[in-house]
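Milestone 3.1: sequence recovery, worked example.
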């Protein structure tokens, strides 16, 4: 029987089919691709398992996706969670209201009585929007009371009070704080009261800073930054350790923390603020 040549088109189709079947049969490229996808799948499973374990066992204060809890110790994600309440001064009114309402809810859920303060505009950079007053509840009172401050600063103060100030007072001084003496929050000025227009505005110009002068304890003693920072004042070395520790603890919550170690302008108080960036000195 004579053999007849296949038409060229049929040869092309047959050749493509053989090549496809060879690939299906497990050529080197196919095997490499399968191994790569297996590796990707295994890595994905490991990541999911790791995330599940982290979500289950890691402290919530260290996980940015967990809600803020003012009763939790200060963790790696605490400052970022509080910063989520921060709103730029030029933000639309609707954005400001939503952030402030959420911030006040966090305080109230933690047992803190808080009131909305009226907005204030003294011209230029001296504008206060979305501020509040701490009116009582589960927090160490400020003296003078009723100071106006940005709501995220109030949240930072409450966490600092619960997680730093109170436990350190018990450990170093054997007593609870009764009130925090302060020099206020709002002041329409540049840093250090400078008249130089080249200097940046102070965070006090928008009620986003608190100056802590002293802490009065429930046993009647007062530990003063001016008198007790060095350890040679009435509160002695325990008072000095207390002040240094509450300063160091503030550095984990507040953007800027300035003390007598920084300069002479802070010889009588600790400056703590909620600026977008800052230093701890």
């Amino acid at each position: 029987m004579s053999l007849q040549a296949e038409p060229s088109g049929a040869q092309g189709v047959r050749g493509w089919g053989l090549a496809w079947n060879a690939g299906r049969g497990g050529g080197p490229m196919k095997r490499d691709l399968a191994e790569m996808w297996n590796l990707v799948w295994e890595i994905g499973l490991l990541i999911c398992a790791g995330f599940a374990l982290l979500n289950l066992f890691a402290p919530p204060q260290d996980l940015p996706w967990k809600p803020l809890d003012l009763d939790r110790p200060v963790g790696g994600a605490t400052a970022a969670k509080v910063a989520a309440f921060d709103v730029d001064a030029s933000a639309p009114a609707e954005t400001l209201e939503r952030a402030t309402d959420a911030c006040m809810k966090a305080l109230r859920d933690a047992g803190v009585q808080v009131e909305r303060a009226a907005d204030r505009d003294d011209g230029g950079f001296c504008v206060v929007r979305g501020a509040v007053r701490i009116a009582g509840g589960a927090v160490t009172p400020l003296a003078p009371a009723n100071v106006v401050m940005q709501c995220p600063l109030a949240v930072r103060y409450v966490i600092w009070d619960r997680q730093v100030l109170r436990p350190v007072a018990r450990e170093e001084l054997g007593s609870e704080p009764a009130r925090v003496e302060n020099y206020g929050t709002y002041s329409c000025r540049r840093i250090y009261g400078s008249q130089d227009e080249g200097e940046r505005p102070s965070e006090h110009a928008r009620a986003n800073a608190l100056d802590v002068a002293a802490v009065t304890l429930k046993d009647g003693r007062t530990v003063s930054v001016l008198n007790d920072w060095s350890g040679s004042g009435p509160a002695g070395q325990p008072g000095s350790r207390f002040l240094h520790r509450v300063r160091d603890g503030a550095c984990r919550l507040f953007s800027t923390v300035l003390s007598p170690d920084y300069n002479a302008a802070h010889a009588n108080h600790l400056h703590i603020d909620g600026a977008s960036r800052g230093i701890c000195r």
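Residues 1-24 have pLDDT under 50 and may be disordered. The radius of gyration is 31 Å.
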